[in-house]
Amino acid sequence: MHSVTDANSASGHDDDLDEGDGTMQRNAQQTRRTPRQRPRASVIMATLATVFFAAALVAAGPAADAQATDTLTPQGIGDAVVGSTLAQLQAQLGPTYTFGPATDVLVDVQGYEVSQAGSPVFIAAAVNGTAPLEATSELTLFVVRNEGPVTAAGIGVGSTIEDGVAAYGPVTLSFNTENEGREFARFENQPAGLSFRTGSGATAGIYPDSDDSFRETTEFIAGAEIQAVWVSCGNVANPCPPQPTLPDTGASHALLLVLSAALAGAGFVLVLFERKALAELPRH
Description:
10-stranded antiparallel sheet
């Protein structure tokens, strides 16, 4: 009787030990798995920081190129969208551009001189607006009078008419004495919304004798240069482009970089807290 009882007791004791060992093993496994199973906040913050940083770099690339070259397009000049209000234009260009007071640009047309680093870049005018300009006036005419901004083909102020012909095909020059005598060169394949002014009256073109107010020719003086480029919108043939939802400006890029830096810093702090918390966990 004693041997059977002792055997049963020993067997029960061994079962208790086996069950205890199994419980300890399961607890140890759960303890080891816990840090891996739960998503770490630091990893999430680091991922978000990387996303914001990449977005800032991608956005900054083309915008930096646009501001550096100030490309003339039917949509405007660089980041400046033709047809914008003054506030919209300021947001698009960012703090590196300054705006002069409203001044007369043409007869019954006022505009703002837009400069960068003290150098005039273009004039933003409201052709169909009221004088004086209002905060809601749409600036539907950009006038470039200084060398700098050029089209994708490299045509701008200072380019010769021969350069324009090489880029956009045959040219026709014209002026109208009833429209302040402004002379323009119109190239066969020039971009829509762009006009190339060559002077006033018979400045660049060679015109036949005529008493008509409107005069036109395909002949021009060799080496005659483009004196101004106009970018305009606001008619049926050339409506104004839509406003960008998030302007690609230095300010918006800086905001993305600040956010990414803040997230990276928060992730670093969380890493330190997690390491400290893991170090304080009981070891089995």
